[in-house]
Specification:
The chain is an alpha/beta fold. The chain has helices at residues 9-18, 24-34, 49-58, 119-123, 131-147, 167-178, 198-207, 222-228, 237-251, 269-279, 304-316, and strands spanning 2-3, 59-60, 65-71, 77-83, 89-96, 101-104, 108-110, 125-128, 154-157, 190-194, 212-216, 255-261, 284-290, 321-323. A ten-stranded mixed beta sheet has the order 3-4-5-6-9-10-11-12-13-14.
């Protein structure tokens, strides 16, 4: 039985025609899925009973079962641990802002990149998510927000997994969400994050998509980055930055660099000045955030004073920088904290 969200419109149309149904039935199903947020064949009351029965027989609709729902103490962040059909689990997060509703979506169960400060990297790689499993996370939250007369405003592919390691499924999911006759979610409101898989960055550049690109950098010299991110042993900083410059030149789009500020490790003036040299002349933005705690890494978050000093060095030298506010840390919902296990608890933390 196939997950219905795995099909694009042309694939769905072929199935419907094979059922001996008129072509417009496919559009009815597509509209029901992506505009009405219907989750079962029984909800498609505009279709003949025979078609609903075919749908129930051939398609799986509910691929995600919420195993645990956690809300942050400030009520602004919700994390859901979803159980998949094969028993594996992934997490996805909704973050509420004054004017935005941002989803942080997973693309894999676990991650093969092994970044030392990331809970997902600490758990290792289990499997890729299908395009439909990626889409289903968005549709679940979209339907919940719809009940509140609200909508998703932004999607970041920054949850569990390395999106570019699961390139084809990730891009198909984006295309499904972007489909003008379906969910019609604007590409410029989607951000994809990579730890630095250079061949995939070049492939992404050649496609000239309107999707935003963010690169997890976290260090401005190879020895330090290799100690934190094993991917740097294969694609070092020089090769990575070259690919990033090619991306900007090819697409004309600004690139974002993510930087988890770790006290005494990569939040120093020395690292800031090296980063300035590395990024000079590149149309970019540095998104820095004090490190979020994980059980498998002993490093500590930077202080507010050190973060501000880091930012000032960058901006004085013409590199735009934002120090992001940490969200959902008390429920392990922050950047680098997602993992497919049921903690069932909140953690204590302090921002200095």
């Amino acid at each position: 039985m196939n997950l219905i969200y795995d099909l694009d419109f042309s694939e769905l149309s072929r199935v419907v025609l094979n059922w001996g149904q008129p072509a417009f039935r496919a559009q009815q199903i597509w509209t029901g899925l992506y505009k009405n947020f219907w989750h079962s064949p029984d909800e498609f009351t505009n279709l003949p009973k025979s078609v609903r029965e075919k749908m129930a027989l051939e398609f799986r609709f509910n691929v995600l079962t919420p195993n645990l729902v956690l809300d942050s103490s400030d009520g602004q962040t919700r994390k859901i641990l979803f159980k998949l059909v094969d028993g594996r689990q992934v997490e996805a997060v909704l973050m509420r802002y004054s004017k935005r509703r941002t989803l942080c979506i997973s693309t894999q169960v676990g991650c093969a990149m092994g970044c030392t400060f990331c809970a997902t990297g600490q758990m290792g790689f289990s499997r890729h998510l299908s395009s439909g499993e990626i889409v289903a996370q968005v549709m679940y939250y979209a339907s919940q927000l719809h009940l509140e007369s609200s909508t998703v405003t932004n999607i970041v592919l920054m949850g569990m997994g390395e999106p570019f390691h699961n390139y084809e499924n990730t891009m198909k999911a984006i295309d499904l969400l972007n489909d003008a006759d379906g969910y019609n979610f604007g590409a410029r409101r989607i951000t994809i994050s990579t730890s630095g898989l250079v061949p995939a960055i070049r492939k992404f550049s050649s496609e000239k998509r309107q999707v935003n690109l963010a690169v997890s950098l976290h260090a401005a010299e190879n020895d330090l980055r290799e100690s934190m991110m094993p991917v740097n042993k294969r694609y070092d900083i020089e090769e990575l930055i070259t690919a990033c410059r090619e991306y900007v030149e090819t697409t004309g789009r600004r690139i974002t660099f993510e930087w988890a500020l770790i006290n005494g490790i990569n939040d120093t003036p020395e690292q800031a000045h090296k980063l300035v040299t590395l990024l000079k002349g590149l149309i970019c933005h540095v998104n820095a955030i004090p490190l979020n705690p994980t059980m498998g890494y002993s490093g500590k978050a930077t202080s507010r004073e050190r973060a501000d000093a880091f930012k000032q060095i960058l901006e004085t030298n013409g590199i735009p920088c934002t120090i992001r506010t940490r969200r959902g840390i008390d429920i392990y919902a922050g950047c680098g904290q997602l993992a497919s296990h049921d903690t069932g608890q909140k953690i204590n933390f302090e921002i200095t």
